[in-house]
Design brief:
There is one protein chain. With about 300 residues, the chain is an all-alpha fold. The chain contains twelve helices and no strands. α4 crosses α7. It starts with a helix and ends with a helix.
Length: about 300
């Protein structure tokens, strides 16, 4: 595929929109359906999409992994990530949840120190500390109302989801040199779909309306399309070009939260979000400068 940075940026922003729509559907469905059922629908739809695109070309090769245990473990971590995030959405607004989740780059750096042997300078440690301070500012607005306990639990779930996402990202880096991308993508959807299918018969509830049925059927397709667009964006342009545009998700989350749930964060939540995003962008710029320095050598 030819290099086209503009298309790569549009694909990344489109992926962030689809992820925000998926999360809005999860928040809506979580109001009257068990979270386990919503997660099952998300992974089943994703598996159907991956099978439709990947199986005709690769067939049973999609099941052949050089590191089967790591593939399954990585996919289960992502499943836990999804469960925690969807559960947290039942207690927090879309924008607050998204902003807290943007601590992932900070957590990836922390986890990379012991797992990948990466070195961290003082400035990066300060950026991590400032990012976590921003997270506390986001959570603080709900601490003085009657729903403070629920808000705190929701924030902890989203932060736990971010921790799982960070572990998932670091594990994906370690897998990249062993299994083809198609195998990794297929296992991501398959393990989640099979695992949740074991539990969903015990929690299944009939969706109460046509709109709920439509949301349940579409949630996985939106997630699968988002992952596909992220991959395409990296084929059009390098990660250093498209990665910063992942933060466009906060604007989609703000818009959808307002349109669908009449939910807008207050000023301290905006401030915390800016701090978290700023910390993540600083770490991104640090990595970009490092990569350029290595390349020039």
């Amino acid at each position: 595929m030819e290099t086209n940075p503009l298309r790569g940026i549009f694909c990344m922003m489109g992926a962030m929109l689809l992820i925000s729509v998926q999360e809005a559907l999860a928040k809506y469905l979580g109001e009257f359906l068990p979270v386990a059922q919503v997660v099952w629908a998300r992974y089943l739809g994703h598996l159907v999409l991956m099978a439709a695109f990947l199986w005709p070309k690769h067939g049973v090769k999609l099941l052949k992994s050089e590191q089967l245990f790591t593939q399954v473990g990585r996919s289960l971590i992502l499943l836990i990530d999804t469960v925690l995030f969807f559960f947290g959405l039942t207690m927090l607004g879309l924008a607050e949840a998204t902003a807290i989740f943007f601590t992932v780059p900070l957590l990836v750096l922390l986890i990379s120190i012991p797992l990948l042997g990466e070195r961290v300078n003082v400035a990066s440690i300060v950026a991590i500390a400032v990012g976590f301070l921003g997270t506390l500012i986001i959570v603080r607005p709900g601490m003085n109302d009657l729903n403070s306990a629920e808000t705190g639990i929701g924030a902890l779930c989203i932060f736990g989801s971010a921790c799982c996402a960070a572990i998932y990202n670091v594990t994906t880096r370690k897998l990249s040199g062993n299994d083809p991308l198609s195998v990794t993508l297929f296992y991501t959807a398959m393990v989640g779909a099979i695992t949740t299918s074991l539990f969903v018969p015990f929690v299944w509830q009939i969706p109460p309306s046509f709109l709920a049925w439509a949301a349940l059927l579409c949630i996985g397709l939106f997630g699968g399309m988002a992952h596909s667009l992220i991959i395409i964006s990296h084929q059009y342009a390098p990660a250093t070009t498209v990665a910063p545009f992942m933060y466009s998700q906060i604007f989609w989350a703000l818009g959808l939260g307002w349109l669908l749930f009449s939910d807008l964060p207050d000023l301290p939540a905006y401030l915390g979000g800016v701090i978290v995003i700023g910390s993540g962008l600083y770490l991104f710029c640090r990595d970009y400068s490092r990569a350029r320095a290595v390349y020039k050598q």
